[in-house]
Amino acid sequence: MRFDSLADWLAWQETLHPNVIDMGLERVAFVARSMGLGRPATTVITVAGTNGKGSCVALLESMLGAAGYRVGVYSSPHLLRYNERVRVYGQEAGDAALCAAFEYIDQARGATSLTYFEFGTLAALALFAQADLDVAVLEVGLGGRLDAVNIVDADVALITSVGIDHVEWLGPDRESIGREKAGILRPATPAVYGEADPPRSVLALAEDLAAPMHCLERDYRYSPADDSWGWRSDAYSYTGLPLPNLPGVFQLQNAAAVLMVLELLAPRLPVTVEAVHTGLLTARLPGRFQVLPGRVEWILDVAHNPHAARALAEALRQRPCAGRTHLVLAMLADKDAASVCNALRPVVAVWYCAGLTGARGQSGAQLAARAGLAGPEMTLHADVALACAHAAATARPGDRIVVCGSFHTVSEALQYKM
In terms of pTM, does the model score above 0.85? Predict the structure, then answer.
């Protein structure tokens, strides 16, 4: 074996390919064929979108697992452990299993260079092939059409949302980004769109492929109540559903899309109303409006684009605090920091701008300049841990500290809080 530890394998993978992101299916499809990989499960659900992917994946995993199905999940990125990316029967893949999969890929690839994400995708597919799964839930990493996950044909494709993000690779507007995300659609294969305003490009491609597209407010609807909610389509309806265990008002929209997916799969994977209830109550996803209670409440959220920042701002309004809101913010240099901060300004009193390392990182000062943040209620910090420490020392009982800006930011904050 090339390496004995998972950490060594991952460090090597980061240096193997000349580009961190190199979109395209040729390399990864070639290696998949060399490995003899076929479909990872009898049924495959592929999930793409700008925001909401992780929540929908967690809800699908929880509901299908509660229904008794053998479920495999591939998601990204991770917060604390790489193992979070691959789950089989609700359990994270172990180091030894991942290392064995990486060795298998390394032997099969020959001279083909793979990115870090492509290695991870193939490892997940290899582990799923060994697990005798009923269903595999695959989360797209970036876009859809050229993402490594798209070498697998989905039985149902879910596009959660389309917002402005990753413009360098996907295009500058919702129409071009939607076209890339709709690349996970397949001819005559059903799909779900999780918002009420799909880009025309998504609907046009679905029509070209004769892929039945089920859209929020047109083909299915949800209705919130005080402590429950309802859902209906032309064929099914639910009343008195428990609110999702995942916090945030936006989670009802994600849960509604998941129920539409389950309706489409009902002939082959029936899910009882009891399993739906259990799945809603037990789904878990760290880093998405994750609340850490205390005299000073902490809220951790991976929001890193304007669409997600608006959702975070609304969730904060729906959960008011007695005191001030302190925001620890660290973002990658290629993100739209100005628009993110504009969405959050109405709900934030004190700002702590922190630096992130790495090729796409930036300093707290660079972030503040790009976001247009200045004044006595803004401070600069070398890293997220220092920003968190300053926020913790400044906040008073009744205040809250919000941490957002990227998965890296929330990961560092979680390590600070551990």
Answer: yes
